[in-house]
Every structure is written in C-alpha cells, then in structure tokens.
Specification:
This protein is α/β, with parallel strands linked by helices. It contains ten helices and 13 strands. The two termini are 37 Å apart. It binds guanosine-5'-diphosphate. Guanosine-5'-diphosphate (GDP) binds next to helix 3, helix 6 and strand 7.
C-alpha cells in the first residue's frame, strides 16, 4: 500500500465514515480527504464533479448515506430513496470519470429479502421480496451495488461493495425518532435509570433477531478490503452472531444498571424477523471482528455519558 495516495472518505461525520477516517489515520494513511456537507453537498452533481476534478482522489470510500431506524425508513421513503440515489450516483460516476483507481461502496444488510435464508449469503440478493419498512432504502443501495458492478464489468474498474450488518458505537445517532434500536434503547434505559422510572418501552414483540457489529470493527474490515479485495462480488461484513431484541434490551439494562421492567409496544413494527449475515467470504480471507457485544455496548455507553456531560 502507498500510504501517501489520496483517499476521499465521503460521509466522515457519520457513524461508519467517522470510524473509517479514524482507522485510516491510525494506520498511517497520510493523505485522507474529507469535506463537510457545507463544503461539498454530495446530492449536488455539479459540486461533486467540481471537487473530484480538483482533487482527483485515487481511492474513494463511499460511506455517505441517508440512514435511519425502522420508524424513519417507514415514514420517509421518498427521502431515503432519492437522497441515497443522488449521493451514490454522483460520487461513483465522478470517481470513475476523474481517475479513482479504487472505490469502496457501503451497502446494508437490508438489501436482502425479508425471508432470506439465515445466515444470509451474498447470493441471496434479489432472490425474494424486500422488507416493506425499508424497501426504499434497500432499493437505493441495490442500485449502488449494481452501478459498482457495472463499472467493473463494462469498464474494468476496481469498484467494490461491502454489506455491513447493523452497526453501533461512538458517534451513533441517539435521536429516538430516527435512530436504530441499540442507541435508542441505550438512551431510553439510561434516562429511565436517571429519572428513577420503573419501566422502559421496547418497540415490537422483542422477538426479531439482529446482529450488531461495532463500528470500529467495520472500519477495520473496510481498510482490510481496500488493501486486499478487488472482486466485483459484494462481501458481507458482520460478527457472525445475533441476539433477539429482548436479549439486547436485557443486556443494555445490565450494562446501564437498570433493574426495572421492559414493556413491549406491539403497535410498533417488528420489521424483518431475522438478519444475520453469512460472513464466510470475509472470514475466509482472514479477517475477524474484535469487539464482543457487551464490551462494545459498555464502551458506547461510556461515550454517550461523556457526551452528555460535555453537553454536546
Ligand atoms: P431494522 O434493523 O431495519 O429493523 O432497524 P431498527 O434498528 O430501527 O430496529 C430493529 C428492531 O428493534 C425492530 O424490530 C424494532 O421494532 C426494534 N426496536 C425496539 N425498540 C426500538 C426503539 O426504541 N427504536 C428502534 N429504532 N427500534 C426498536
């Protein structure tokens, strides 16, 4: 690897992009480019092309996306579809046109059918209907995968795609209306403990199963793929284990030290019954995650509390 090659991390203020930026800097990459939304709005094709023409990044990590939990995806399908299509079309096309030698596109485990075989192999893509609560986001991500694979097939470009499972960690979104389950429950349980409340509301039945990967592990996997992977076949990134939402809630209660009761709000959707990725393609290359779920939750909780103390 040439550590002086320019790498553009699109979405460096997000959960995934932030962790990837830290990982690249820690590993010694000396020419990492970032732009805030105010500097380059990635939904603006002209602004994106102007930036790529000026900087000509050699490697592009596309971690910018409009993301959210089950409620936000369900309520705002237009925004999830349109914004993501714009961002990825602009960045992938500009990367191709202005000489990037490699691009890593981040997808999501929700691209797979609602009732995919478990654990989900990469081959399950487009083998059945999607989960309706996030099908708009999933369709956008599938279009991004196809665009990268098409650039590889038609123009021989080294544009690769990684599919991360549900992510969590420092830098996550803790807004209860738009966040994913893990940060939402961490916040709710913390607030219940602080206020002396006796109960915490968990959406749905508690029965769905989800896999949770610490974002620093995702970042390590992304660096590994940038350095060692050049196949147009997309590749799953997960930790290989899942838990029920009830088990997750109980684990969070233990970490936070909350002894009250969990109330399940059945008026909220469960979403996909299970989402566990088959990560054998990645593990066969020698990559392994490092963070156990309990330890990752404790570390994220420490970050959350520190942020709360700082008032930011
Ligand atoms: P998903 O993986 O795309 O379904 O996204 P989420 O992370 O938002 O939700 C995962 C599961 O957790 C779903 O079954 C939700 O109903 C459930 N869940 C339980 N409590 C909450 C909560 O407070 N917020 C969110 N976002 N999900 C919750």
């Amino acid at each position: 690897m040439n550590f002086q090659e320019s790498i553009f991390v699109a979405g460096h203020r997000g959960l995934a992009g932030g962790a990837i930026l830290r990982e690249l800097q820690r590993a010694g990459y000396g020419n990492v480019l970032t732009r805030t939304r105010g500097e380059v709005d990635l939904t603006d094709r002209v602004a994106v092309r102007r930036f790529f023409e000026a900087e000509k990044p050699r490697i592009v990590v596309l971690a910018a996306a409009k993301v959210g939990g089950i409620q936000a995806n369900n309520d705002f399908p237009v925004e999830f579809l349109l914004e993501n299509l714009k961002i990825q079309n602009n960045v992938i096309e500009a990367a191709a046109d202005f000489g990037a030698r490699k691009l890593l596109f981040l997808g999501s485990s929700c691209i797979y059918p609602k009732l995919a075989p478990q654990p989900i192999p990469e081959s399950a893509l487009l083998s059945g209907p999607l989960e309706p609560t996030n099908d708009a986001y999933a369709i956008a991500k599938i279009a991004g995968i196809k665009l990268c694979q098409s650039y590889a097939r038609e123009y021989g470009r080294d544009f690769i795609c990684a599919m991360p499972t549900n992510l969590y960690g420092p830098g996550d979104n803790f807004d209860l209306a738009s966040s994913h389950v893990l940060p939402a429950l961490l916040r709710k349980v913390h607030e219940a403990k602080s206020s002396g409340a006796k109960t915490v509301v968990v959406w749905g039945t508690g029965a769905p199963r989800r896999e949770f990967l610490h974002v620093d592990d995702l970042a390590g996997a992304c660096r590994f793929l940038i350095e060692h992977y050049d196949s147009p076949e997309m590749i799953n990134v997960g930790c290989g284990e899942d838990v029920t939402i009830r088990e997750l809630a109980e684990l969070i209660c233990e970490v936070v030290g909350f002894t009250g009761e969990l109330i399940f709000d059945m008026s909220k959707p469960d979403g996909t019954p299970r989402k566990l990725l088959d990560t054998s393609r990645l593990t066969a290359l020698g990559w392994r995650p490092r963070t156990a779920l309990r330890e990752g939750i404790a570390q994220t909780y420490a970050w959350y509390r520190e942020r709360e103390t700082r008032g930011t």
